[in-house]
Amino acid sequence: MTNGDGDVVRAAGCVLWRRSPYDGELEICLVHRPKYDDWSHPKGKLKRAETPLDGALREVEEETGHRCIPGTRLPTVRYIAQGRPKEVSYWAAEVADGRFSPNNEVDRILWLSPAAARNRLTQRRDQELVDALLGVLNPA
């Protein structure tokens, strides 16, 4: 997908969060992708003419089965994937409703405390998004 800036792959996702139904503490949703055997935030490539926010909300629902309420925009993450530059736009998003069903892309999800989520995430860039979410939800 090119938009006048080379072969940048455009994607979007959310750092999906909720308050624990047990103790009210913050929990972050991570997805496990069997194709890569990794843990990440829900995200995916944008469809043609899809806005980043629309793509982020679609990907969250496809990967986790949950609808969400988008909040503050988080940092955009840039990296090289399969030899091409990739740019992923992220939002903080509170879970609204839904239910997870395993699928070809995502076989498991976990709701974890921020510290446990940071430790479970495969990529450092995803760990930094946990910190960005905490900064938004708990401004100093």
Task: Please provide a brief summary of the model.
The protein contains 3 helices and 7 strands, in the order ββββαβββαα. By secondary structure, the protein is α+β, with helices and mostly antiparallel strands. It has a single domain, classed as Nucleoside Triphosphate Pyrophosphohydrolase (Alpha-Beta Complex).
Q: Overview of this structure, please?
A:
The chain has 140 residues and is α+β, with helices and mostly antiparallel strands. It has one domain: Nucleoside Triphosphate Pyrophosphohydrolase. It is 24% helix and 44% strand. The protein contains three helices and seven strands, in the order ββββαβββαα. Strands 1, 2, 3, 4, 5, 6 and 7 form a seven-stranded mixed β-sheet that branches. β2 (26-33) and β3 (38-40) form a beta hairpin. α2 (114-120) runs antiparallel to α3 (124-137). The radius of gyration is 14 Å and the shape is globular. The mean pLDDT is 94.
How is the main sheet built?
7 strands, mixed
Percentage of residues assigned to helices: 10-25%
CA-atom Rg in angstroms: 14 Å
Strand content: 35-45%
CATH topology: Nucleoside Triphosphate Pyrophosphohydrolase
Q: If helices are DSSP runs of H or I spanning 4 or more residues, what is the number of helices?
A: 3
Q: Structural class, from helix and strand content?
A: alpha+beta
CATH architecture grouping: Alpha-Beta Complex
| CATH superfamily descriptor | Nucleoside Triphosphate Pyrophosphohydrolase
Tell me the number of strands: 7
Please mark out the parts with pLDDT under 50 across 5 or more consecutive residues, or reply none: none
